[in-house]
Amino acid sequence: MATIKDVAQYAKVSVATVSRVINQNGYVNEDTRKKVEVAVESLNYKPNSVARSLFKKQSKTIGIIVPDITNPYFPELVRGVEDYLIQKGFTTILCNSDEDPEKERLYLDVMKQKYVDGAIIVSNTIERELIDGYDMPVVALDRSIHHDIPTFAIDNRDGGRIAAEHLLEVGCTRIGHIKGPDKVENADNRYLGYLDVVMHKDWFHSGYVVEGNFDQKQAVEVTKELLQNDREIDGIFAGNDTMALGALKAAESLNLNVPEDIAIIGFDGIDLTEMTKPELSTLSQPIYQMSREAAEALVALIEGELVQEKENIFPTTLIKRQSTKR
Ligand code: RIB
């Protein structure tokens, strides 16, 4: 396969001149340009993308950092980002951070070494100061990082309120909550939305809330704990759909019928919620639209445009299915 040196020899010019022609960077007279173009054509030279990245310090690559791709929410989120970016000629590097600041820093270092053009980050731990050190456009998706960084997320507290109110509307009299992980902003806000609805009820006490980890298996155990705290619980709001799947499993293991004995609602609107028996009610996030718009904003930043809105908040949609049909 022809190299840039072969092109230079063929056109009888320097490698630097060939590079300037290929990367359209710097002055080259018309005759020289034509000689290089003939050489490229004749030798069927394909510029090496790594070499181009080194020269232009651009790679047409975008970094995406998410906490855990094994959670079905994130593949749906990444799909919306990637479908847009590929249309604009960008490829992606996908990174699982496990909410670990050291892993986030490692991945940002790798992105810098590879001249990544920008990054879309889902994080509750990364600091604005850390990002400033990498000198590349960043957009926050699903969770905010800093008010100066364009953010695409939903109104989590409103969604938590809607979930709890729906359980009351279908006749639940005692509602428990499986909260997402501590210090994850959106989990905390969904919990606050739940409290907005129930904290003044005469039956409410702290035993009605257990802490999950946005994880399905662990939610089976904490749901059993919740139901042992108070046998009166007849409705559960889980802070995400994977925990709601765990709650369904726990109810089955306790021989509780859903929704007759206990109604269950999740949060996210992942496709799996249509596959369970009973099908799961949920607060659906506009995952694809939100992530696509985040990708559009990042490309605009890379292309030097101003992004007007820093905070882009999307509404959730209540999806009523069998698991709350009482
Ligand atoms: O299910 C994963 C959760 O983490 C979702 O609720 C999403 O909002 C993300 O933050």
TrEMBL record:
InterPro entries membership: HTH_LacI, LacI/GalR-like_sensor, Lambda_DNA-bd_dom_sf, Peripla_BP_I
TM stretches of this protein: none
Keywords recorded for this protein, A-Z: DNA-binding, Repressor, Transcription, Transcription regulation
Entry annotated with the keyword Flavoprotein: no
Domain HTH lacI-type: 2-56
Pfam family, one: Peripla_BP_3
Alphabetized SUPFAM superfamilies for the sequence: lambda repressor-like DNA-binding domains (SSF47413), Periplasmic binding protein-like I (SSF53822)
Record's keyword annotation contains Transcription regulation: yes
Protein name, UniProt field: LacI family transcriptional regulator
